[in-house]
Amino acid sequence: MNSGDLSENLAYPVVDSIDSREKPPLKLLTIMRLGLFQMGLGMMAILTLGILNRVMIGELGIPALVTAGAIAMHQFVAPARVWFGQMSDVRPIAGKHRTNYILLGAIGFTTAVFLAVQVMWKLGELIQRNGGWQWSGETYLWTGLLALVFVLYGVALSSSSTPYAALLVDISEEHNRSKVVGIVWSMLMVGIVIGGITGGILLKSIADPAIVTGGNIGALLITGKEVLTTPLESLQAPINSLFIIMPMVVFGLAFVATWGIEDKYSHFSNRSISSSRDDSITLGKALKVLTSSRQTGIFFTFLLVMTISLFMQEAVLEPYGGEVFQMPIAATTQLNAFWGMGTLLGVSTTGFLIVPRLGKQNTAKLGCALVSLSFVLIIVAGFTQSAALLQTVVFLFGLAAGITTTGAISLMLDLTIAATAGTFIGAWGLAQSMARAIATVSGGAVLDLGRLIFPSPVLAYGLVFGLQAVGMVVAIALLSRVNVQEFKDSTTKNITTVLQESLD
Question: What proportion of the chain, given as a percentage, has pLDDT over 90?
Answer without folding.
Answer: 21
